[in-house]
């Protein structure tokens, strides 16, 4: 079985994790918007509903609560998971 790496709060500023995760997910055809929690109060306050990818990434870096998590990365791929069931699919 693959050794999973669970990354939460991945929009942090240390080690370029946000960039790495973004690249992995984009290679799989996911959008940056798929990684954003649209129900967070700061999402509406910042007017992010029509924001481009760069703006969304900057917003997630400044407000980690906007980052959908957990993001799971294993040798089987990377996935933004909303539940335990999503995580189990990559383990």
What is shown here, in short?
This protein is an alpha+beta fold and 91 residues long. The chain has a single domain, classed as Glutaredoxin. It has 4 helices and 3 strands.
Notes on the protein architecture:
With 91 residues, this protein is an alpha+beta fold. It has a single domain (5-81), classed as Glutaredoxin, CATH 3.40.30. It contains four helices and three strands. A three-stranded antiparallel beta sheet has the order 1-2-3, covered by helices on one side. Strand 2 (71-74) and strand 3 form a beta hairpin. Residues 4-8 and 10-15 have low confidence and may be disordered.
This entry's quaternary arrangement is single chain
Distance between the terminal alpha carbons, to the nearest Å? 7 Å
CATH class: Alpha Beta
What is the overall silhouette?
globular
CATH fold-level topology: Glutaredoxin
Largest sheet: 3 strands, antiparallel
Q: Which superfamily, in CATH terms, is the homologous superfamily?
A: Glutaredoxin
Using only CA atoms, what is the Rg? 13 Å
Percent helix: 25-40%
Uncertain stretches? 4-8, 10-15
Q: Give the second-level CATH assignment, the architecture.
A: 3-Layer(aba) Sandwich
> How many distinct domains?
1
Trace the largest sheet across and list its strands.
1-2-3
How confident overall, as mean pLDDT? 74
Structural class: alpha+beta
- Strand residues, percent: 5-15%
């Amino acid at each position: 079985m693959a050794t999973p790496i669970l990354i939460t709060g991945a929009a942090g500023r240390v080690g370029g994790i946000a960039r790495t995760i973004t690249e992995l997910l984009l290679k799989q055809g996911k959008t940056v918007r798929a990684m954003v929690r649209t129900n967070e109060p700061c999402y509406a306050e910042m007017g992010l509903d029509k924001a481009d990818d760069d703006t969304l990434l900057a917003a997630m870096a400044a407000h980690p609560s906007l980052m959908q998590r957990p993001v799971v990365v294993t040798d089987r791929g990377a996935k933004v998971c909303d539940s335990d069931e999503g995580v189990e699919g990559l383990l």
